[in-house]
Amino acid sequence: MSEVTMLEKLERIIRADEAVTPERAAELSVLLDEPPIRDVVALVERSSATRAAVVLRLLSRRRAIEVFDALDAAHQADLIDALGDESVTEFFGELDPDDRVSLLDELPAEIAERFMRTLDPTERDITGVVLGYPKGSIGRRMSPEVPHIYDDMNAEEILQKLRRVAHNVETIYTLPIITRDRKLVGVTSLRDLFTAEGATPVTDLMVTPVFAHAQDEEEATARWFVPLDMLAMPVVDESERLVGMLTFDDAADILEEADSEDTARSGAHEPLQQPYLSTPLVKIVKSRIVWLLVLAVSALLTVQVLDTFEDTLAAAVVLSLFIPLLTGTGGNTGNQAATTVTRALALGDVRPRDVAAVAWREIRVGLLLGAVLGALGFVLATLVYGLDIGLVIGSTLLLVCTFSATVGGVMPIIAKKVGADPAVFSNPFISTLSDATGLIIYFLIAKSVLGL
Q1: pLDDT greater than 60 at residue 67
Q2: Measured CA angle at 99 (ends 97, 102), to 5 deg
Q3: Residue 411 pairs with which residues in a beta bridge?
Q4: Which of 4, 146, 151, 270 has the fewest CB atoms within 10 Å, counting from its CB?
Q5: What is the pLDDT of residues 285-299, one digit of tens each?
Q6: Where is the CBS domain (predicted)?
């Protein structure tokens, strides 16, 4: 049986059986042990909470913990009720401190407190360190489980210590070097330690550290850290004392979450924060309904503009034929600019103080786009409806493209300046604003050229 067929068979069995019989449970347990772990994770992500809980219970203990750990925190939270306290407590205790905190953030306070009480004192204290930092800070995403390598140790002493503590720490490949009072002074690698003579002082092996402060904003930190292609970097407090390590995979997760959020909000809905097929229907509706209501209300601006210029439309009915073209072009132009600038803000290519430079650049881009589209619109409209209509359409396209590109480029920066999410002010709102403003420009030009 091929691997794909095996997974399809597993999915059919899980979907068909709300209550798994003992005989079927034994069969499923054997089948679930065969596919790679990534495929079992995919099966769980495509299943409802009830069916996913069945899969996790049928897996071996170690495999179940690995699958649970691979899920998004919001998905883990959805599985809490279906799994029952005993299973959840076991999974919760096996999570890394930063992953544990991400799950706690998704749970009601009383449930989070109950799970915290199930931890042994050491794990509770380590988790408390991460919880002590504000949400959105890099301290909330770091691992506090770091080997203490002091600057007065040699290579052999460090290797002996790593052998003792390796199973209790997040990573041993990038090693921060600290003084006896925990101040960060350098970093070294496991490769350098292995290749050095045993008596070599670690100060001869260390280099100047790249580090972040625990209070730094998580997305901004991940943006500059990931391109460095480092496995991990130290995280320090205000006094530059070592408090944890940020690993590359955790930084990549931060960027994935941020990009998913921006993409969702640019499309006028909230991010689901878990796989689509495992997301409850009510949660999907909630992620969309508020935005639809906001956009419906904002779209009333367009209706009001049409009502204001009703007499103009009545005098030249042909103008109504071009409304979809003009509003669509304006919205698309604004969306292109907003998406480009929002991405540039996320990557650090553009900063809030660059608002004037962005506006000037988008004015010129909009003029060029409008000139090309306006010239084409002028020729086609003139050929079919005459010179006057051609002038109206060509002029409107020129001004609408210029206005929409400028607004689309500037709005995300304004959002950033006031502390809002640039993606929120991106495509949906800009489309509505461009529609209303484009119609005003259109009818004013029409009244002037046609003498209405």
Answers
A1: yes
A2: 110
A3: none
A4: 4
A5: 887 787 777 777 767
A6: 142-205
Question: According to the model, what pLDDT value does residue 5 have?
Answer: 57
Same domain, 96 and 160: no
Chosen domain end from 132, 162, 188 = 132
Sequence-ordered list of residues with C-beta below 8 angstroms from that of 72, at least 6 positions apart, any chain: 273, 274, 275
Could you tell me if residue 285 is inside a domain?
no
In a domain, 216, yes or no: yes
| DSSP-derived 3-state class of residue 189 | strand
- Single out the residue of 145, 123, 179, 132 nearest to residue 247, CA to CA: 145
pTM over 0.85: no
Would you say 406 and 359 are in contact if contact means Cβ atoms under 8 Å apart? yes
- Indicate the pairing of strand 174-178 with strand 149-150: parallel
In a domain, 405, yes or no: yes
CA dist., res. 290 & res. 63, Å (int)? 39
Number of independent structural domains in the chain: 3
197/117 same-domain check: no
Is the per-residue pLDDT at 53 higher than 90?
no
Domain with 39 in it:
3-132
Neighbours of 107 (CB within 10 A): 17
Rounded Cα distance between 148 and 368, Å, is: 59
Lowest mean pLDDT across 183-197, 209-223, 283-297, 406-420: 283-297
Three-state SS string across 200-227, please? CEHHHCCECCCCEECCCEHHHHHHHHHH
Q: Confirm if 226 and 248 have CB atoms less than 8 A apart.
A: yes
Do residues 392 and 441 lie in contact, with contact meaning Cβ atoms separated by under 8 Å? no
* Beta-bridge partners for 143: 245
